[in-house]
Each structure stands twice: as C-alpha cells, then as structure tokens.
C-alpha cells in the first residue's frame, strides 16, 4: 500500500534550520509530483508550502516561505525533502507530505525561543 513517512521535525529557535524528509513507498515515486503542506495550530486548512515535479522542477512555493525554504527530491531514494532556513515562529505547524493522492501522518515543527 502507499506509504508516506515524514521525519525531521522538532523544536528549533527562531532563525534556525530544519530539514524534513518524506520517504515514499507503494507507488512509482519518480513519476509523481510531490507536495509539502502545513497546518498551523487552530487552522482547519492545510497550506501548500512547496510542490516539485517528478523530474525535480520546483512548481510552487508559498509566498510566506520563498527565499527561506527549498523543496527537493531524490528519485533513487524515493524521498522528498524540505529544507527550512531562517525559521520564524509563524512557521510552527504540522508539516505533511502529499503524493499519489495520499497524505503522510505529519511531523511537528515548533519554532520558539
């Protein structure tokens, strides 16, 4: 079955960095666009943070993360990444990987001093 497993979240101070990973299985990863979403505390809607094509072309960044976050992928490892730099308190959220119509379980990112 399709599985998306996120990792790399945690507690970080403002200005710090984290790299999230999402390991995919159960579908042909190299043929699918992949996405990172986030859901902030108290919000019902998940925000699309980044989107990357099957070949590695970046298709979208949310305005709030442009210049700070980088989405990338390794089709040999069936993994998509989100490098997050210059983190702000407003980046605090649960971050979800999405692909092949499926969601991962999410990983918590908390930015706080």
Provide key terms for this protein.
mainly beta; 113 residues; 0% helix; 11 strands; seven-stranded mixed beta sheet; four-stranded antiparallel beta sheet
Task: Figure out the total of helices.
Answer: 0
Number of distinct beta strands: 11
Instruction: Tell me the span between the first and last alpha carbons.
Output: 40 Å
Are there runs of 5+ residues with pLDDT below 50, and where? none
**Principal-axis shape:** globular
Computed over alpha carbons, the radius of gyration is 13 Å
Helix content: under 10%
Which structural category do the helix and sheet elements fall into?
mainly beta
Strand content range: over 45%
Averaging pLDDT over every residue, what do you get?
A: 97
């Amino acid at each position: 079955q399709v599985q998306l497993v996120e990792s790399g979240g945690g507690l970080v101070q403002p200005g710090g960095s984290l790299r999230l990973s999402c390991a995919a299985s159960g579908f042909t990863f190299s043929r699918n666009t992949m996405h990172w979403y986030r859901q902030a505390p108290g919000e019902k809607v998940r925000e699309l943070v980044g989107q990357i094509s099957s070949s590695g072309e970046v298709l979208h960044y949310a305005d709030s993360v442009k210049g700070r976050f980088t989405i990338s992928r390794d089709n040999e490892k069936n993994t998509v990444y989100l490098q997050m730099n210059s983190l702000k308190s407003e980046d605090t959220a649960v971050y979800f990987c999405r692909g092949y119509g499926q969601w991962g379980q999410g990983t918590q990112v908390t930015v706080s001093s």
